[in-house]
Design brief:
Layout (H helix, E strand, L loop, with lengths): L8 E2 L8 H5 L8 H9 L1 E2 L8 H16 L1
Antiparallel strand pairs: 1-2
């Protein structure tokens, strides 16, 4: 997506993997489904000034990436 000019980010980091919770004993593997989701989910551009032309570009890029 970035190669197509679309900024994406990781959606979230599981709370129990944050440093505070790791010092309490939480470890990778404690919640495998949360970790699987973390490894797969992304945040797409979404803000109030995103025009329809850019929305279309995001959808087109996502369609191309997912179909390749």
């Amino acid at each position: 997506m970035r190669a197509r000019g679309i900024g994406v980010n990781l959606h979230y980091i599981p709370v129990y993997l944050q440093p505070y919770y790791r010092q309490l004993g939480c470890r990778p593997g404690d919640c495998p489904e949360a970790e699987r989701y973390y490894g797969e989910a992304i945040s797409l551009p979404m803000f109030h000034t995103l025009g329809e032309d850019r929305q279309d570009a995001v959808v087109q890029a996502l369609t191309e990436v997912l179909s390749s």
